[in-house]
């Protein structure tokens, strides 16, 4: 860009079912923040005022347009959007070249809950639920998950999260789904300060869907036994003492999980 922008531009790098909608609806409550909804999701292009042929550069220009009262503008970008030949793949190169971009990384520590949330959304067709919406509650949805599928999914997802974290600059802000769920306004205050705006109190707009793993998974006991004494055991034993992402939280090299291929698969 030829001049310093008057608004702070940001991107939230994330995956599906990691609290994206909760973060988006919370950011939108700030009068000085404009947060678009997954603008590079090619499966939702029918919601956008542009089509698949619109260049990513043009979309970014629209998203980051100046507007009276707006101090920060941005959007969530799922790690799979614009990848593997999908539309707008040039967006990743454009963002990498942007040295003034504010980068945030959002992920979910409990990968089993992330996988269950995705499986539940696929089964029900309901990808989000308004916290203030009074709707009849259907019978609890239960299902099974294959242990080998879970093992591969955990490893692949963990590798993607750690790869994204390693690519982030030193001044990037990393937050988790659990941060949002356990302390929404405390976490949002950190985010707002990173975006250069004064923190405000927000209301939780999105309701968590589904129940605990031991009530939702019909083969929970079998999975718990299958993942005993593995890096994924904490998803099943209720301790939440996760180790797969220790390099994000701890500086000591001996606390790091080691080689993903050697340890996880």
UniProtKB/TrEMBL annotation:
<protein>
    <recommendedName>
        <fullName>Trehalose 2-sulfotransferase</fullName>
    </recommendedName>
</protein>
<dbReference type="InterPro" id="IPR027417">
    <property type="entry name" value="P-loop_NTPase"/>
</dbReference>
């Amino acid at each position: 860009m030829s001049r310093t922008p008057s608004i702070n531009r940001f991107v939230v790098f994330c995956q599906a079912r990691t609290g994206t909608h909760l973060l988006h609806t919370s950011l939108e409550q700030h009068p000085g923040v404009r947060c678009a909804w997954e603008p590079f999701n090619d499966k939702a292009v029918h919601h956008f005022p542009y089509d698949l042929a619109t260049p990513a550069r043009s979309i970014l220009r629209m998203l980051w347009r100046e507007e009276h009262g707006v101090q920060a503008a941005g959007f969530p970008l799922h790690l799979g959007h614009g990848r593997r030949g999908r539309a707008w793949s040039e967006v990743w190169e454009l963002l990498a070249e942007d040295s003034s971009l504010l980068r945030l990384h959002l992920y979910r520590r409990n990968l089993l809950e992330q996988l269950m949330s995705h499986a539940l959304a696929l089964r029900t067709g309901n990808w989000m639920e308004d916290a203030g919406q009074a709707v009849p509650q259907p019978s609890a949805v239960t299902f099974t998950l294959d242990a080998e599928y879970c093992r591969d999914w955990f490893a692949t997802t963990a590798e993607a999260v750690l790869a994204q974290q390693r690519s982030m600059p030193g001044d990037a802000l990393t937050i988790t789904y659990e941060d949002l769920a356990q302390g929404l306004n405390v976490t949002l205050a950190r985010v707002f300060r990173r975006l250069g705006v004064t923190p405000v109190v927000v209301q939780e707009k999105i309701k968590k869907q589904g129940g605990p793993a031991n009530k939702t998974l019909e083969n929970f006991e079998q999975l718990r036994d299958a993942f005993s004494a593995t890096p994924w055991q904490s998803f099943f034993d209720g301790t939440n003492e996760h180790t797969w992402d220790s390099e994000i939280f701890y500086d000591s090299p001996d606390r790091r999980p080691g080689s993903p291929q050697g340890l996880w698969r």
